[in-house]
Write a structure and sequence with these properties.
The chain is α/β, with parallel strands linked by helices and about 190 residues long. About 50% of the residues lie in helices and about 15% in strands. The chain is built from 8 helices and 7 strands. It has helices at about 5-15, 25-45, 60-75, 90-95, 120-125, 125-145, 155-165, 170-175, and strands at about 15-20, 50-55, 80-85, 100, 105-110, 165, 180. Strands 1, 2, 3, 4, 5, 6 and 7 form a 7-stranded mixed β-sheet that branches. The longest helix has 21 residues, at about 25-45. The two termini are about 25 Å apart. The model has no long low-confidence stretch (mean pLDDT about 90).
Amino acid sequence: MDIQTKIKIALDTGIIPIEGEVNKPMADMVTEIFLSLIAKGSHKGDFVPVDILINSGGGYAGIGLAIYDMIRAYPGTTRTIVFPRAGSAAALILQAGDIRVATPNARLLFHHLKVSDVKLDSIRNEKKFAELKEELIELHRRLNDAHDRKKISEEEWETLLSLDEWIYPEQALEIGCIDEIITRPFSKR
């Protein structure tokens, strides 16, 4: 589905798909859709409620934060829906919704940052290594801040991140990473 079709669907239905890898093209698409919705709402003086359907195993954490910020900046009500999976950066995007829900058989993954594109020079050079370490610590802090509605201690959260395992909605509800388990994601709110 091309971007214009996705924008038309979002304008007509208020549904935005987040599917596949969390990357720059996805962030560009989400930004374009939200800017179109904001423009439409500004003319009418009313912002439509938006459902963000998440089906992603994750991707780039920094880009996930950018999408998170775009969703949080939207003046209308947002509902993020895990249907059927939200892993890693996609689980972060889930946290942006005013209302965070998952279907009964959805799966969610929360884990520590993983870095795969580090050059050997960055590890060999002490200054570059220290900068990389500080950058990762800051990104980790920002990711944790985005999970501000969790119901568990920081120690319990860090333990969960260390496990690096997919969880079911019941556990996500218990720890405060979703607000509700829903059986009909496309029904009227």
